[in-house]
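fyi for ur records
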Amino acid sequence: MGLSIDVHGLKLTYDTFPVLDGAEFKIEKGDLVALLGANGAGKSTLLRCISRILQPTGGKIILDGRDLDKLNSRETARLMAVVPQETTADFDFTVEDIVMMGRFPYLRRFQKESREDYHIVKRAMEMTGVLHLAERSIATLSGGEKQRVIMARAISQQPEVLLLDEPTANLDIGYQSMLLELAARLNREQGVTVIAAIHDINLAVHHFSRFIMLSDGRVLAAGRPEEVITPENIHKSYGVPASTYRHPLHGVLQISVARGRDSEREPNRGPLVHVIGGGEEALPVLELLDQQGYRLSIGPVSAQDSGCRFAHFHNLPVIIVPPFTSLDEQHREKHLEMLRSSDAVVVPPIAFGEGNLPIFDEVETVLREGKPTYIIDFEGVNDRDYSGKAGELMQRLVDEGAIALEILEELPSLLFKNGGLGDER
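which gave:
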């Protein structure tokens, strides 16, 4: 099961504009491939050429050693199924009628559908969660329901190649995951070669093992996630700066793009806020303050910390220390200097352990000197305390003038009102 696809120098021109400009790659039998690239990069056009909806103006597509142009439409329909971006319903067919259309390549003229055909169609509707809609008119369904019906039709075709063109566009996050996992299951259990044009890179990396990134109608990169999804390639294809990292829960490669961060954006000019520590808990704080226009400094953090990656991506001052070690005197002095140069200090809802408690000696020093200091989720400190000492320490900071917040969203308004910061913005 599954077919290989060789694309050689594929070209397609609309009027005089080249949409595909010599695209070239090979997909092996049973590959699970995501097509990536900015709008207009050629993803949908490439899939339409492979499915024979469009006729290329140059180059060749070889399907398992056979020239695609030499196959008739029935042969092609038995080998490949397509789930397009959009589906229009011009006729009042039922859902079952639409899914049964996937069996047409296997029926002779005027031949009736067999019991086996109905079994295949029922199973396809079960797999896509539309069996309960079998008697409904396709015209009465939502966009997401129609998309699942078309996926069921493709499954009933029993293809060796499944082409998905932005298949999750009209689906909520639950059905997005279900549909892509279904495609991965067909690949895993039946060896179906799957090629999908995907808009959401972070969604794609959860379900696909191979990637092809297009840019201006050509293949920019092809291979494993680490080879294709790089900051350099993302900038070339999408035109935006990005950073990549491993998700802390599942380890899957992810990308982060700075909203509105480009060469034309003015740098932040607000008061300088120092955010203590790092980790995933600090990222919402950093993002919010960055969007509010504050300048930021971060630390202490390790080089592997997500806060450190945020600092490097935004070119922010950061104190980097070796992981699982206490601050030495040099780091403590640098930390104190950074705290004193800031206009305010923020403690995110981080976890507390013996390793990071000493950094609050410097926080307490600047607090006593009058530095506005804010502790987010003060009530939850004990739930995040693995030292048994943080609750008492945070309470002492509050007694000495630190401001306790219940939720992060309170922070911008308090920063604006307290310590004279609002006058400087």
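The chain has two domains: 5-244, 272-424. thats all i got for now
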